[in-house]
Write a structure and sequence with these properties.
Keywords: Ribonucleoprotein, Ribosomal protein. This protein is of the alpha+beta class. It has helices at residues 53-62, 64-74; strands at residues 13-18, 24-29, 34-40, 45-51. The protein is elongated.
Length: 78
Amino acid sequence: MSRKCQVTGAQPRFGHAISHSHVRIKRRFDVNVQSHRYWVPSLGRTITLMLSPRGIKTIDKRGIEAVVADLRAKGEQF
């Protein structure tokens, strides 16, 4: 599975690692995504989402039902 947050859409970014001699090497800054399970009463089951910490905070604030409704409108599958 890709390193992408299903709620916020955060993806890896790319940049340079700069050494002491100032040699630049391409590197990848990964997103801190975590697998998190939620019980969704409207579906009657648990779903597993790949979320960044900001995505987890979004679900805490808005509620899992509202977030699932938005994800279903986007065509996301769980």
